[in-house]
Amino acid sequence: MNRPIRFLLLLLILASCSKPVKTNFYMPAEWEPHDAVWLGWEEAHLTYHPVVFKMIGALMPHVQVKISANSDSLLRVAKRILSEQSIDTTRIKFYVHPSDRYWIRDHGAAYLVNSKGELGVADFSWNSYGFPYWLQEKFDNNMDSVKKYFNPERTKKLGQVDSLMAVAEHATRLSTWVVHEGGAIEVNGQGTLILCEATVFDRNPGKSKEALEPEFKRVLGVENIIWMKKGLADDPKHFFRRIVDNYVGGGTGGHTDEFVRFANPHTIMLAWVEEREKDLNPINKMNYERMSENLKILEAARDLDGEPFNIVKVPLPDLAARKIVARVNVDDSPTTLDVRLRSFKPSEAPHAGDTLLRVPASSYMNYLVTNGVVLLPTYTATGSSREKEERVRKIFEEQFPGREIIFIDALPLNWSGGGMHCSTQQQPAVGKH
Fold this sequence. Notes:
Helix content: 25-40%
Largest sheet: 5 strands, mixed
CATH architecture: 5-stranded Propeller
Number of strands: 21
CATH class: Alpha Beta
Shape: globular
Distance between the termini: 50 Å
Strand order of the largest sheet: 10-11-17-15-16
Strand content: 15-25%
Number of helices: 13
Structural class: alpha/beta
């Protein structure tokens, strides 16, 4: 074979290999069958453990539990601690991935399925919740300070976890340049995705909806995107933020799993502050205004058939603000909620000795639904209305009929800006969608 013909054949082979393969992968809705639910294990945050024990105990009768940790030695610690709680670790599958974070939904795999019964993973890019941009904002673009506090190697390792989870489950990986976290993905399994502008644009500065939407549609297998404006006020971007007045907190900056969730393909649940509660405190007022704007968007939204969605308002728990003190140095005891002055950006920083009101990212919307059960946070122990929580129970019983509703006090997670949904990741059952 002469050289020109050989060269043409090579070009044809390369061209055929470069064509995108039509996979038909999509993300199923969370209420569809699961093969497993994943959790991370983070040694440093022992205050999480009582919540984790209850979650695992509630999940094990219904679904395979999988736990990912940063090393073999840490997994041995996890097995020992779980065994001390009478949890049968032989029924849990353990994995080692380069992750020193508990919140596996955000940096871990977003699992997909296709019509062939194959498993896929949407491999989004990762930048630690826009941390470099937050540091630039905090230090007024002083790049020396940004380099001092930003660890690109750790971020790179965390960004590999979703692809390693794909390898562990022999899943096809659909990678994208879009930076996004799992707690900000909400789908109905029938072509519609809900996103929040506040987080998407923060993680992808300079990118437009026109540039972002095709990638979300490609890797998640959706055709229709509904854009919320802002998330809850008590879920501000990063730690620590002065939210309003003396109220401070930290979080993701607007993850959807804090305030808007599909209950079924045609029903959307929205976190809500009632009219009579909106003036009880500044946080309530901010949430009332934000959710009212989001409600208008949802009321105007349509599904793929052009039909409107049924909107269900889910009450937010009563605000669980706790008085704390701003200090130059804070004891690293896991029980303290006091804050360091240097954790704030200068324009929001309190003075040493100031009394502040720290708020957790508390919401009934940060629930997990899996086979036969819904894990739902409870807030009556911290003073929230029992009557309100009973209304929430009835809403969830109506929206998830036939599933057991299990209330778990997840406040230790809320103080760190997340909840039970943030700290888990469902793995869909292939061939059952």
